Amino acid sequence: MSRGQRNRQRSWQKLGAGVAVGLFLLLLPLWVSSYIQSILIFIGLYSMVTLGLCLLMGYAGQISLGQSAFFGIGGYTTVILSLKCGVWPWGSLAAGAFLTGVVAYVLGKPFLRLTGFPLAVVTVAFAMLIAILAGRLDFLTGGHDGLTNFPRLSIGTWELTKDFHYYYLVLAALSLLFLFSKNLVRSKIGRAMRAVDLFAGGSETAAQSVGVNTSEIKLKIFVIAAVYAAVAGGIYANYIGNIHPGSFSAWWSILFVAMIVIGGSGNLWGAIIGPALYISIRESISQFTRGGIPAGWESVIFGMILVTILILLPGGIAELPRKLGFRGDEGGDP
Amino acid sequence: MTIGEQIGQVIISGLTMGSIYAIIGIGLAVTYNVTRIFNFCQGEFVMIGGMLSASFYSLGLSLPLSIGLAIGITAIIGAAIWLLFLNRPFARHSSLVTLILITVALSIVVSGGVYIGWGTPFRELPSFANISPIRLGEMIIDPQVPWIWGGLLALVVGLTFLFDHTLLGKGLRACSEQPIGARLTGINPRSMAFFSFILASLTGSIAGVLVIPLTMTSFGVGLGYSIKGLLAAMVGGITKIHGVIVGGMILGLVESLAGGFISSTYMDAAGLAVLIILLLYRPEGILRN
């Protein structure tokens, strides 16, 4: 078989696989319980956040421990607009994403003048600051108890309340974001990102010397990641039915980074593997803790898995196929 | 209270929390300077120091013994973390980011472990001096305050002695300033890294033990201390101890001023916000080197 024929055959195979997986995902709610659906919803929501983080860390090479803050700003904005200003819930969701994007733009400019660890410190401090403010600005955010009883997402008069409603919503949103990200990575912007990516041997000076506007690229990806997190936060708030500061403490920022590290930041699929693994572990352990074993174990076990992966597989699980010898999108002959 | 006394009260409490942040920051700075690793476990060392001392004390041990055991055990934990996780052959090949993330992961494990062992309730310890609060005019000073200041002073004196007059200390300095030169003269960077981690856990637990009579502690406070300690160290300038102390004092004073003159609800937020701004303004630290 010629190389052209082999490539065409591979493309058909990929398409076929994609259609099969797609059908499977679409029909899933018919076969699984509400509980499983809710697990998948959480995986989907966290994946949106980590997808943005993957673009930022894996492709543009910047560390941000601030995603939880944007998750929260998006969520709170959505809820506050729906609850206190009577805005149509979908509009609140969009407004939440937009507002978070603006905040990320305004803050991103000074933040991104730092790199590496100082950037991490500033973003994590920012995440902590937002979580604290959410708990203290009672008049706006309902304080520690948060907000509840707000108008939720609906299509026409049909309110989205069931798990499978949100399953499809999250599936759709995640797919859209994923496709957008894939396109981004393949585009000129994507190449510019990789030129700046310190993790992959890029170099800002080198990129600048060939005319890549590095600060602009970094800022764009930072804002994109924030918007992804905000959308996830808004949907999350609508799904849970309330929002309170505990849902997005600085710990979550760290967990999101941990998820992307486990999943692998070099590959967009890592953004889904990470949360999937985290939630699987969490749920498996909570099955056991119903027997009375104290709940700290999920942290301990998750932390140990994280350490193990960092030691053995610094590139995350997504790196595993490459390490084992499978050739991916590189094209060309084995 | 006159306005003078109000300001005095605020400044005193600011310098007190500032001392705590400074002590935590010193531990972070030493580890960073010697190993280039930012140790996210630092806050957990603070928390463990506090928790252990509270537990020992509630078991009936005397105060000095509880404190001593707490500090000692935390030092052992710090040593164990280094030996088990950061000293492996792989560590030489891993990027710094990976090593930092390992300390993050370990802080998750540690706080989870403490939660398993101790649960959620806050723990406390009485002030070291069993006397009633000190009064200066209308100002009230918690009797723990002189201990905290004294602790910082003792630490600084001790570290200065260590760095200037002992071989170990000079080895640590050599590693931070000239890693290659240090190895050429026979100093083993891995041993130095090991000692810096022990120093970090010592300073962390000392801070924890000093602060617990003032603020109580629980399994989740570690992250906050790590972040604040990092901010304080970086704002002041992480390469010099006096920079870290200045950074810590700034954080303590801002929190205290916000608490005294705005509202205690916004103390932490104000401190974080101001320090973020300072760090953005001058990422290398505000003290000119």
Give a brief rundown of this model:
The complex is a heterodimer of chains A (334) and B (289). By secondary structure, chain A is an all-alpha fold.
End-to-end C-alpha gap of chain B:
40 Å
Report the radius of gyration of chain A as a whole number of Å. Answer: 20 Å
Q: Taking strands numbered 1, 2, ... along the chain, how are they ordered across the largest sheet of chain A? A: 1-4
Number of helices of chain B: 12
Beta percentage of chain A is under 5%
Structural class of chain B: mainly alpha
Helix-strand category of chain A: mainly alpha
- N-to-C series of helices and strands of chain A: HHHHHHEEEHHHHEHHHH
Number of helices of chain A: 14
**Roughly what fraction of the amino acids of chain B lie in strands?**
under 5%
Largest interface: A-B, 40 and 43 residues
Shape of chain A: globular
Low-confidence regions of chain A: 327-334
Pick out its properties.
heterodimer; A: 334 residues; mainly alpha; two-stranded antiparallel ribbon; 14 helices; 4 strands; 72% helix; disordered C terminus; B: 289 residues; two-stranded antiparallel sheet; 2 strands; 2% strand
Give the SSE map.
The complex is a heterodimer of chains A (334) and B (289).
Chain A: H1 3-31, H2 34-59, H3 67-84, H4 89-111, H5 116-136, H6 138-141, E1 147-148, E2 154-155, E3 158-159, H7 163-186, H8 188-196, H9 204-209, H10 214-240, E4 242-243, H11 250-263, H12 270-289, H13 297-312, H14 320-324
Antiparallel strand pairs in A: 1-4, 2-3
Helix pairs in contact in A: 2-7, 2-10, 2-11, 2-12, 3-4, 3-5, 3-10, 4-10, 7-8, 7-10, 8-10, 11-12, 12-13
Chain B: H1 3-35, H2 42-58, H3 63-86, H4 89-93, H5 96-118, E1 134-136, E2 139-141, H6 144-165, H7 167-177, H8 179-184, H9 189-215, H10 222-236, H11 241-262, H12 267-281
Antiparallel strand pairs in B: 1-2
Helix pairs in contact in B: 1-6, 1-7, 1-9, 1-10, 1-11, 2-3, 2-5, 2-9, 2-10, 3-9, 6-7, 6-9, 7-9, 10-11, 10-12, 11-12
